[in-house]
Structure formats: C-alpha cells, structure tokens
Amino acid sequence: MNALSIFNPSFASNVFDAFDRDFGYGVTGATPLVDVRETDGAYILDMDLPGYSENDVSLSLKDRVLTISSVAQAAKEGAEKAEDKAEYLIRERREARFVRRFSLPRDIDPEKVEANFKNGVLTVTIPRQPEAQPKQILIKTA
After folding, report:
1. For position 10, what pLDDT does the model report?
2. The whole model's pTM is what?
C-alpha cells in the first residue's frame, strides 16, 4: 500500500502514486505535506514548505516520475552563535532534507509542467494532454 492510499485509496491508486519518502534527519516531521487536485485540464500539487525558499527546492521529471527534493542549511543565527563559541542548550533547527517522488498518470503533458513558490507553498501544475481531457458528446435525435 502506498503512502497516499492510506488517506484516499481510490484517488491514489488511479492518479498519483507517492512511492518514496526520504525522511529528514534531526527534525521531527520533516516530510512535507502534499495536496493533489485534479481539474479538467491539469493536476495541481500543493506542498507545504514553511521556512524554505525557491532556492532550497529542486524539481525534476523523468519517465513520468516527479521528484521534489531539498537540502536546507541551519539558520544563520545558529551558525553565528556557534562562531561566538556559545554552547547550545537546545538545538532543534538543524539541516533538514527531504525527497518526495510521485509516479504520474500517463495523460500528462511533461513539456508544460510549471512550478510556483509563494508564502511557503510550492504549487506544481501538471497539464493533461489535450486529447486526454474529457470531451462532451452531443446526442443527436433521429
């Protein structure tokens, strides 16, 4: 059973298959949460990435597998304290990394995939091929 099928079996098995999660180290809950929506013309993936910027995120698409990954460095404030030779009493903000891979449906148009990063949310729009979009059929009368 894949990660998404736990939450919505009919959706995950037919549309997106999240088949790999690489949990971050030194951080609790480092795997970003994802919502996937379907419209007539596209699949839209929204990933929560608070504390990240567009420069921290890498996306690739090969053989209908979308990979989203990142490596974020510890906060500059923490690095400055270390240079001052201060001793940490609590250190929870460490380097965090993640990798999420999604096996995409056959009806995507890989040449038109777009990504947008705004307010800590990565939005990936994956258009469907025009011939795969639902077509209304007119019923004629005799």
Report:
1. 39
2. 0.66
